[in-house]
Amino acid sequence: MVYAGENTLSALGRMVLILWLFVVLIINSSYTASLTSILTVQKLYSPIKGIDSLMASKEPIGYQENSFVRNYLIAEYGIDKDRLIPLSLPEDFEKALRDGPNHGGVAAVVDERAYLELFLSTRCDFSIVGQEFTKNGWGFAFPQDSPLAADISTAILKLSENGELQRIHDK
């Protein structure tokens, strides 16, 4: 690059050289970005696109043991009980997903988002696919006319308003 600039005597020639170097730099950067994108997309491919494709596949589905997820999948989506595999620990999730449905594992794990985010925070080989689906609402149960109900609701509202609830979630 320096040698080519020394041989160029006119200002116009130097300007053309500088423009050409910028064009080569942009083409090189675009090629590198495209290649990286192609390789990343191929690595992240999943035959499962969401709950509908998972239901249609008839492959085993993992869920966290002692969770409401089992009953939810059976009641809301009509998934056969025999397809649901209980998993206890994050290590069980990982092993079942790595083994896959053809080797005694599962095609996917369905669980609460917070637990899945925690699982994925240390295991980058997996990802969340499809639309998030939720059971509407959650709450606390108090005896009727309990003074705690209003206090808890107010505290949660304050945490939500000042952003602390989101910081707790992120942590």
UniProtKB/TrEMBL annotation:
Residues 8-171 form the Ionotropic glutamate receptor C-terminal domain. It is a multi-pass membrane protein. The keyword Iron does not apply. One of its GO terms (molecular function) is ligand-gated monoatomic ion channel activity. It is found in: Membrane. InterPro entries: Ionotropic_Glu_rcpt, Iontro_rcpt_C. GO terms for cellular component: membrane. Gene3D superfamilies: 1.10.287.70, Periplasmic binding protein-like II (3.40.190.10). PANTHER family: IONOTROPIC GLUTAMATE RECEPTOR. This is Ionotropic glutamate receptor C-terminal domain-containing protein.
